């Protein structure tokens, strides 16, 4: 442990975008411990990544301190997240200089409403609620200059005309607990729930950035340098496991065939925003690695790849941002003391 001076924590670092980003960050920041966290690590991603890093460093010696480490985390369960953070805290890692809230999933099949053990619609629960709790509980472990980067998606924005149904946001309560009474459960099928959860990522980022900006202006807190931005859209990425709910054939085509036909996919979806995960990982690693003025300039911005651009019109709605923030804090905080801790910057 003594060899490392900082920590980078990346959710969903075991596959896809997170895996490739971890590799780049490990090369770029050799003195950083890197924690990758997800529900499973069936392919021993941490081991493979450590070997790749060592090979690229052309080191013949095996380090006794593995740079990349896997810790199990289920963002769909608030009790699991609390256990994860206790486990994390007991290991005395150096302060977190970059927190990448990147894990995500989507359900394609059926209209069935899937709920987390806490009774929240699963896509919203994992992609937004779980990440929010992880952030709140990890606050005491963040370094004064920490970067927080949240992976969203162009699917949050109807103007982008992705093939995914438009995101909907009436209230956080309705995303968490869709009801048939107002037709919300029905119209909100799997991919639409995904788009809405990615909209929640953007709304939450703006609400958090507002609080961090105020803290920076008043300059009386240890958190005043934290900067948060969304990497919006890594773009459509053939080669990741995001489409696993579509079934094994589609996953095989997406991971083995589509990766060689990026140009064709660009034609088919009518957009240049199709990238291999390695390419998008370079953009995500760049955002996570920003420091100083560059980091401050990127605060509260939404990026498509390397370019800051406007997120959707709905995501700019401050009332919706605050509705989501309030609901999230109320839902997650165990008591008034914890609520105050979550809200203090
Ligand atoms: N692929 C695309 O075309 C695309 C486009 C735009 C945005 N994105 C975004 O990019 C991010 C990464 O996705 P990807 O494409 O790299 O997909 P991926 O290959 O499926 O990676 C997703 C990662 O999230 C983890 N994860 C899923 N559910 C989790 C849970 N409940 N708790 C903890 N970890 C969980 C997965 O591990 P486990 O399943 O083992 O937990 C995996 O490590 C996501 O936020 C996604 O929305 C992807």
Automatic annotation (TrEMBL):
Keyword vocabulary terms for this entry: NADP, Oxidoreductase
Name of one Pfam family that matches: adh_short
Stretches assigned to coiled coil: none
Assigned protein family: Belongs to the short-chain dehydrogenases/reductases (SDR) family.
Annotated protein name in UniProt: Protochlorophyllide reductase
């Amino acid at each position: 442990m003594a060899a490392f001076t900082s920590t980078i924590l990346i959710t969903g670092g075991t596959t896809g975008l997170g895996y490739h980003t971890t590799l780049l960050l490990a090369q770029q920041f050799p003195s950083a411990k890197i924690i990758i966290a997800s529900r499973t690590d069936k392919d021993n991603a941490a081991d493979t990544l450590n070997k790749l890093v060592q090979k690229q460093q052309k080191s013949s010696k095996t380090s006794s301190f593995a740079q990349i480490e896997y810790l199990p985390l289920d963002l769909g369960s608030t009790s699991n997240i609390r256990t994860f953070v206790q486990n994390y805290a007991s290991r005395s890692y150096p302060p977190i200089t970059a927190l990448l809230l990147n894990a995500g999933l989507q359900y394609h099949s059926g209209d069935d409403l899937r709920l987390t053990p806490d009774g929240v619609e699963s896509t919203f629960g994992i992609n937004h609620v779980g990440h929010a709790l992880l952030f709140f509980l990890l606050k005491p472990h963040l370094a004064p200059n920490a970067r927080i980067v949240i992976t969203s998606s162009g699917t949050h924005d109807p103007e982008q005309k992705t093939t995914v149904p438009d995101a909907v946001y009436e209230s956080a309560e309705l995303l968490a607990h869709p009801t048939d009474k107002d037709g919300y459960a029905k119209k909100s099928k799997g991919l639409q729930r995904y788009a809405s959860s990615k909209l929640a990522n953007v709304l939450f980022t703006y609400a958090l950035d507002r609080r961090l900006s105020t803290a920076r202006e008043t300059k009386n807190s240890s958190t005043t340098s934290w900067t948060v931005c969304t990497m919006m859209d890594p773009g459509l990425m053939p080669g990741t496991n995001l489409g696993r709910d579509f079934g094994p054939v589609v996953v095989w085509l997406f991971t083995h065939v589509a990766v060689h036909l990026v140009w064709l996919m660009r034609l088919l979806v009518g957009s240049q925003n199709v990238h291999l995960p390695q390419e998008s990982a370079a953009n995500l690693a760049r955002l996570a690695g920003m420091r100083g003025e560059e980091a401050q300039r990127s605060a509260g911005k939404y990026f498509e790849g390397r370019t800051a651009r406007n997120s959707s019109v709905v995501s700019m709605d401050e009332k919706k941002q605050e509705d989501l923030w309030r609901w999230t804090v109320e839902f997650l905080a165990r008591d008034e003391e914890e609520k105050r801790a979550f809200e203090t910057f």
